[in-house]
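Help needed: design a sequence for this.
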């Protein structure tokens, strides 16, 4: 028969059996969320860097095409194509470009491209009739170094500054990491799980400040997955006259 001290020692060890299992069950899900979160944040950072490059391509395309929205969206799609690449070949690039073009087409709701400069006020100050005879007005971009550098009455900027094309792109980025896609989407859009209406349209005032606006939800049945908006801006000098018809 074992001494009483040994029995107490054995009982104490048996009482601690399985303790690490309990700790593992608590920590493991949190660890998975942490790892998935790091991966998704890294992908968002990569996408933002890609969008910065694509936005600059769009601005450069607009600078040489009279501020054409179609040309800028086409260039934007080319810059965003790496986000859709699955095969390092010409065929893979073609497929990625097709997918990128689908999301950058006007009216799809996945990309919002706005021209912040030139403005209509600048066109009123410095505009002239289009020289191509089509009709409408344009902002001259030639011989800028010899033109008056004084500010316009309506725009309060010079014609030289008016010829700086400033574009802003909002892109609905798809979140692809399981679990974290919904967590980040809900956090960014301040969704309420208790109200179907708010879940569909976003929450306009999640903290009771009465000052926020409805967030864009990037919802389109043609495009899968939870999405969040990432933004980029670019500025280049116009290399062609900006057509007023390209302002919205």
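Sure. Designed sequence:
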């Amino acid at each position: 028969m074992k001494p009483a001290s040994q029995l107490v020692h054995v009982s104490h060890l048996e009482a601690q059996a399985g303790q690490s299992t309990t700790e593992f069950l608590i920590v493991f899900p949190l660890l998975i969320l942490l790892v998935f979160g790091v991966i998704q944040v890294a992908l968002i950072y990569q996408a933002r860097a890609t969008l910065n490059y694509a936005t600059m391509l769009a601005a450069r395309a607009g600078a040489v095409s009279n501020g054409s929205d179609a040309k800028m969206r086409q260039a934007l799609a080319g810059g965003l194509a790496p986000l859709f690449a699955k095969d390092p070949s010409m065929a893979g690039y073609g497929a990625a470009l097709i997918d990128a073009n689908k999301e950058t087409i006007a009216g799809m709701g996945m990309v919002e491209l706005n021209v912040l400069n030139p403005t209509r006020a600048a066109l009123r100050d410095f505009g002239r009739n289009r020289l191509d005879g089509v009709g409408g007005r344009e902002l001259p971009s030639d011989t800028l170094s010899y033109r008056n550098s004084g500010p316009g009455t309506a725009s309060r900027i010079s014609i030289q500054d008016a010829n700086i094309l400033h574009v802003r792109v909002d892109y609905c980025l798809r979140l692809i990491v399981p679990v974290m896609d919904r967590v980040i989407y809900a956090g960014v859009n301040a969704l309420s799980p208790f109200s179907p209406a708010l879940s569909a349209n976003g929450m306009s005032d999640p903290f009771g400040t009465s000052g926020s606006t409805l967030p864009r939800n990037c919802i389109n049945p043609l495009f899968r997955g939870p999405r969040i908006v990432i933004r980029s801006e670019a500025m280049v000098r116009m290399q062609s006259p900006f057509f007023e018809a390209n302002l919205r």
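The longest strand covers residues 164-174.
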